[in-house]
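re: the backbone from monday

yeah here it is again, tokenized this time
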């Protein structure tokens, strides 16, 4: 099953190279394909497309994918040099899956240097007074200046990696401090999570948690919970701090225990659920990839290993059997029913490129043992 799903993804991704040219897919619109909403490498999601190209190259060794990924890296080089749409923390998503992937696969020194420059850009978002990485907006932004969001846990590997590559502890120090703050304030006592948390930007005094894309401030946005599962597992990978591993476990238990019958998440765990409630297949795809990372850090005799392994296989199987576009030759996306921003009515039930990326990453890991590009192999 996994092999068939990967090969379907490879065929579709090859077709999409021709469709997209020098543009990047983000989210589909109104049930269409990604071609309805391409961008010239200006969105936070553009690394995911390049990451898919690298995964397809690793599976097939087809130079078509490698050449397309290398062209994308040149686009990311220009984006960083010209500081195009980089006033946010998602520099990790952008450069880990493009330039850093190029270093991991090919040991391309130019790609390594570009990735280190991107890490410096992310490091520049550290706010010493508040002791956090500012999620969105420029320094001093009145609304955003003291805001963190749970997504940032997936950007921290860029800093951890940069510390390993350079021997400079500052990258790691900032990543650890931000991960610890996220663990303290974004993870709630019942193992659910806030999407976002505010602090006074001049003092770091906590103000309170809220949501940006979830159902309401006290609810649990499922994609945010997914970022936490994978992100804390990655912080454990780099630091071996047992608190990060335990936090990943806790978030994973909560996510799995609140899934509906087909083992693929609704867009928020607290939204009233019926036949018309939006799913978020991307949240489940992220969790499948994250569970594979979490399992790598559990002992063979760990009591929870069978529990997590069982859920992983059921969720990934459901994505393949119930949500994938296998058999739909002209489909641009790999899995249906992803949601971007339900309350904002922005692609609430469409293809989303990060969902496709994590779906393919999980398949490659479970079938071929090929991880994503969050750390050196």
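seq for it, each position gets an aa:
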């Amino acid at each position: 099953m996994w092999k068939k799903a990967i090969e379907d993804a490879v065929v579709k991704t090859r077709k999409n190279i021709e469709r997209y040219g020098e543009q990047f897919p983000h989210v589909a619109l109104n049930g269409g394909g990604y071609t309805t909403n391409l961008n010239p490498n200006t969105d936070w999601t553009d690394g995911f497309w390049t990451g898919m190209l690298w995964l397809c190259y690793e599976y097939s060794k087809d130079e078509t994918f490698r050449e397309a990924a290398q062209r994308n890296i040149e686009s990311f080089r220009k984006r960083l040099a010209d500081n195009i749409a980089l006033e946010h923390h998602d520099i990790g998503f952008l450069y880990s899956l493009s330039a850093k992937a190029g270093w991991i696969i090919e040991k391309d020194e130019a790609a390594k240097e570009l990735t280190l420059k991107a890490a410096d850009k992310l490091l520049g978002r550290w706010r010493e007074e508040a002791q956090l990485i500012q999620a969105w907006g420029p320094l001093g932004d009145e609304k955003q200046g003291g805001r963190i969001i749970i997504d940032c846990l997936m950007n921290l590997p860029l800093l951890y990696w940069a510390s390993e590559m350079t021997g400079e502890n500052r990258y790691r120090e900032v990543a650890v401090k931000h991960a610890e703050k996220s663990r303290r304030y974004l993870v709630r006592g019942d193992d659910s999570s806030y999407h976002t948390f505010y602090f006074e930007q001049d003092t770091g005094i906590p103000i309170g948690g809220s949501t940006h894309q979830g159902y309401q401030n006290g609810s649990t946005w499922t994609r945010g919970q997914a970022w936490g599962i994978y992100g804390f597992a990655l912080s454990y990978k780099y630091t071996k701090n047992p608190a990060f591993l335990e936090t990943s476990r806790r978030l994973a238990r909560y996510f799995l225990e609140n899934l509906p019958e087909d083992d693929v998440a609704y867009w928020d765990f607290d939204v009233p659920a019926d036949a018309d409630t939006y799913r978020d297949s991307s949240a489940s795809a992220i969790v499948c990839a994250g569970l594979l990372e979490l399992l790598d850090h559990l002992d063979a005799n760990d009591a929870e290993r069978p529990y997590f392994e069982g859920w992983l296989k059921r969720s990934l199987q459901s994505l393949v059997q119930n949500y994938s576009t296998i058999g739909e030759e002209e489909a641009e996306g790999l899995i249906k029913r992803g949601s971007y921003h339900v309350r904002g009515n922005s692609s609430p039930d469409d293809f989303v490129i990060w969902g496709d990326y994590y779906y393919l990453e999980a398949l490659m890991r479970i079938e071929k043992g090929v991880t994503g590009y969050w750390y050196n192999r």
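The radius of gyration is 19 Å. The chain has one domain: 2-368.
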